[in-house]
Amino acid sequence: MNDYPDPHLLVGGEKLNGGGRETDDVLDPATGETIASLPRASAADLDTALDHAQSGFGEWRDTSADKRASILMKGASLIKERAGDIAQALTREQGKPLAEAKGETMYSAMLLEFYAGEIKRLYGRTLVRPEGSRVEVQYHPVGPVAGFAAWNFPSLNVMRKIGGPLAAGCSVIVKPSEETPASGLMIAQALLDAGVPGSALQVVFGVPNNVSEHLLASPVIRKVTFTGSTAVGKQLSKLAAEDLKITTMELGGHGPVLVFNDTDIDRALDSMAAAKYRNAGQVCVSPTRFLVQEEVFEKFRDGFVERAEKVKVGNGFDDDTQMGPMANSRGPDGLHKKITDAQKRGAKLLTGGERMGNQGNFYAPTVLSEVPVDADIINEEPFGPVALINPMDSEEAMIEEANRLPYGLAAYAWTDDPARRRRLAAQVEAGMLAINAASVSAVDAPFGGVKWSGHGLEDGAEGVKACMVSKTIHEG
Ligand code: NAD
Question: What predicted TM-score, i.e. pTM, was given to this entire model?
Fold first, then answer.
């Protein structure tokens, strides 16, 4: 039975489908079956969406802060009510275990609740000069926003693209991934049902490059926010620069994990192995380069292999599944190529390293050790279920290796030495550092990277401020 919702465009509050529009198939990554046909927005649809975004911006910006906050709170409660259905669609289109899909969706609602609260905390400030003059600093929504979300967190990524802009008073046109369209659409529909005007929140699909070029060429769009690869992030940044649009770029990473001999290795193993194979490693903040002090290297390596081999891989709808398929067919093919390259260059394959089953995009939880520095996999984000574990002889060498790559998204460290924690916080180049912890996300804390992992922030108060511009009023 195919209970996957029929996807459509959402333009000016209308559901658009058919009408001679070109379509793309949506595939179930666990079976390879086609589950839906997704319409592509035509150039005329995109122009209509741009017109609505312009008028929707005025309408939403001029809605009182109280009303906007209560609409977003209602949207969050509708998402929670519908989380079971949204999670079903998400697992069908993306493959992750149903419990994770539900957790992601509930987290999206919590993020929206946080943003709704922030609407009432968007203060300016007044500088009162002793001689009587005043300077007032005001914050205003930047204008219509174009958001492009990736397929690895189909509901949360869409929320990250729309929550901050809506809280700031902007209108948004969002393009979820064509590979995972339904759960993001259901998130947007909940917000429309809660009272966000149809012109302030629109959803389009198409050939990604065509949609972004079309929207970014328009002077209506004042901000671009993207989650995806560094290569596409650079391309969109260049397009945005033509019109000096503001950008938020949430791009790739290559998470270093610094494991010192002064920590509880079993605790580090339990936490990091679960984090590594979550969402089949298709997580921008996934822990990937394990840099382990020599004294504890063998214990850590063997413990990791043992845990990797116990991960239950299967269809995300099966109750005992801990890791589903990769989300698209590019995943296992690209990962396998990188693993083979690493082996040819001398890396040791300790477990995994192969596809699983004869349908869908399943790939075995994999561990490589002694991976040489010239292997592609230790330089380019593998974005899959693979851990790279290398022995290291000193803290200096570990920090140097952590900072060697141009990426700087999430980093992890396991140590019980307080002085070392402070050194790491100062020296590791990353937007987020988790010490003796696996999570780098909290709705009230900023999320984002440095260097090639991007710029601009989502979540926290910073996620709203990123969609605002200041205006300074000088009064004599
Ligand atoms: P990609 O960058 O081509 O696509 C990622 C997302 O961006 C997709 O949803 C896609 O629809 C969209 N996209 C692609 N080109 C676009 C364009 N010109 N304009 C607007 N949107 C566009 O990456 P991919 O092939 O799907 O995955 C390859 C790599 O991207 C992964 O291996 C990983 O390194 C990275 N990635 C990172 C994240 C993240 O969370 N930062 C998410 C997905 C992929």
Answer: 0.97
Tell me the sheet residues that pair with 386: 366
| Residue list, ligand 1 pocket, CB within 6 Å | 148, 150-152, 177-178, 208-209, 212, 227-229, 232, 235-236, 250-252, 284, 330, 381, 383
Dist CA 70 CA 40 (whole Å): 33
> What residue ranges do the domains of the chain occupy?
9-251+453-475, 255-442
Residue nearest to atom 9 of ligand 1 (CA): 150
Under CATH, which number does the domain 9-251+453-475 receive?
A: 3.40.605.10
Share of the chain above pLDDT 70, in %: 100
| Cα–Cα distance measured from residue 280 to residue 355, given in angstroms and rounded to the nearest whole number | 13
Query: The domain at 255-442 falls in which architecture?
Result: 3-Layer(aba) Sandwich (3.40)
As annotated, the active-site residues are 250, 284
> Could you tell me whether strands 410-414 and 432-435 are parallel, antiparallel, or unpaired per DSSP bridges?
parallel
Q: Which helix (H) or strand (E) holds 55?
A: helix 43-61
* pLDDT (0 to 100) of residue 3: 86
Residues 6+ apart with CB under 8 A from 386: 281, 288, 335, 338, 339, 352, 366, 367, 368, 377
